[in-house]
# Entry
Amino acid sequence: MSNNVSKLIILITVIIATGSGFMYFKTANEKGALETELTDYSLQVLSLNNDLDEKTEDINDLRDDYQDIETQYDLLESQHDVLREDYDELNTDYIELYADYAEVYADYAEVYADYAEVYTNYTELNYLYTINTELRIGNSLTSYYDYLRYELGPTGSRSNWGYEEESCKFASSLALHDLHRLYWIEAEENYGTDVGEKSYAQAWEVMAKAIVFCESASGDSDTDKIEKVLRFVNSIVDYELEIDDSLRAPVETLSLKSGDCDDFSILVAALLEALDVQTGIGFFENGDSAHAMVLVQLDSLDGYRYWKYDDLTYYDFEPGTWLMIEPQFTIDLQGDDEWFSQWSMYMAVEVDYEKVT
# Structure
């Protein structure tokens, strides 16, 4: 029994000793781990303290920077207030000046409009003055044409409309004379003796100026030339009836700035001939009255309507298409059906030296 008790005591003692040793070692290990962890925390605290010191320095630096910036801001705000006051004053001055400018500009615009109107009137008057000066003929040349009409050629009076071919040739001859291509020998000799110059030379000098006023360019088509001649003639020549329907030379019509249908036709035919457009002069009737128009050898009026004759060889014209040109119309009206359809041609002569002499 006592042996068993002793064994039990020994066993318990062993168990207690073993448990105590185990607890000791466990506690020692846990203590070591805790000490290690404490050391790590201490190092972390030290590092955090170092970071805190650095951040504190940064905060102090930022605070100093903020104070500097705040000081600069206060200064800039003060300057801004001053500048704002200056701006407000300048803006007020600008508004006043702009109002003055607007008023001055309105006055300028009104003055400029008056100037433009005056300049336009001046330009027109200067153009008319130049034309009246440059295209004027004197009494000597005027009397020469009177002599031709009443002594050597048809007067073109209504009583002489029966001499259709003679009158038509005379109209073409007048166009050729002013182009420096034809003259009447005896009349020219008398004129040269009395005046000391050639009548056709004087006439051509005026015609050359008129050609310049037509503003035809070297590259112009025949349609362009017709357009420019018609525009020029209709801008300076007014239609006026004549008591005896005298056939007037081109320079007479240019000088008078007026004429009837045959005068328009002779002038336009001469100007187109000078620009190398082959022309003729035609006499027409509609049952009630007679009329004169121009004929041009051309296939068509590019871009414009027109009336034509496919053949006029029975009037000794060159073969080909001949267009009817109303010299009192601009080119855009040359296709007027109501006007052209009423006329029937009864005589025509080509503006050609060999066909009028």
Summary: The chain is about 65% helix and 10% strand. The domain at 135-356 is CATH 3.10.620 (C8orf32 fold).
